[in-house]
Specification:
2 copies of one chain form a homodimer. Chain A has a single domain (8-99), classed as Jelly Rolls (Sandwich). Helix content of chain A is 5%, strand content 44%. Chain A contains 1 helix and 10 strands, in the order βαβββββββββ. The first copy, chain A, has one helix spanning 8-13, and strands at residues 6-7, 22-27, 30-37, 51-57, 59-64, 68-72, 75-79, 85-88, 93-100, 119-120. In chain A, a hairpin with a 3-residue loop joins strand 5 (59-64) and strand 6. The radius of gyration of chain A is 13 Å and the shape is globular. The model of chain A has no long low-confidence stretch (mean pLDDT 96). Strand 7 of chain A pairs antiparallel with strand 1 of chain B, so a sheet runs across the interface.
Amino acid sequence: MNTSVINLKEKSSKIKELHSYKIIVQMNDYYFKLIKVKREFIWHKHTDTDEVFIVVEGSLQVSLRDKILKLREGELVVVPKGVEHKTACSEECTVLLIEPAGTLNTGDAGGALTDTSLEWI
Amino acid sequence: MNTSVINLKEKSSKIKELHSYKIIVQMNDYYFKLIKVKREFIWHKHTDTDEVFIVVEGSLQVSLRDKILKLREGELVVVPKGVEHKTACSEECTVLLIEPAGTLNTGDAGGALTDTSLEWI
């Protein structure tokens, strides 16, 4: 079992590619995933789980159908299950996602941006 | 449903008392709890769940039976279920705990430090 101390920014510095989810730790059946982002994502929802976004570096916009949330470093939001959302990031940012293992990044929407290539770092 | 942006340090600044767990968000059946700490805790384990500690401010020591982990701001550790641990903090620090709702702070040890007075902030 891994009981190492994880430094979030240090882990982030090891990620060389954008838009590739990297698992950093597992808690029960949940993954903590780091991703470097610079793009506008697609509208989607997760019908069976909430999802947490924590900004580790930079800024992230999370659009819901009725409002736009702007998150900076050290800020988080819970997107409740069933709630449509779309992330966007004009400058590169690093986000920590917390959600059950098996959760697809594109949720119910599917499509070309679906990423099933989870790797640990 | 709460879809507000939560700033961890801002939430921390609202906590005026030490050693009182404050729920900041819920993700499925998990609570994210902030606590300000300045004490040595007791040895205990959680027999049915992993537990995540993320340091928001200051430094936290997490002792396991075979090693001592030192966490600074922006660092995290997963204490696996069944693994005995003891936290300690000589200077005030703020820690974000992630664990299932209903998880007792003293785990299997119980005793006077058991805190059942969970409040939201």
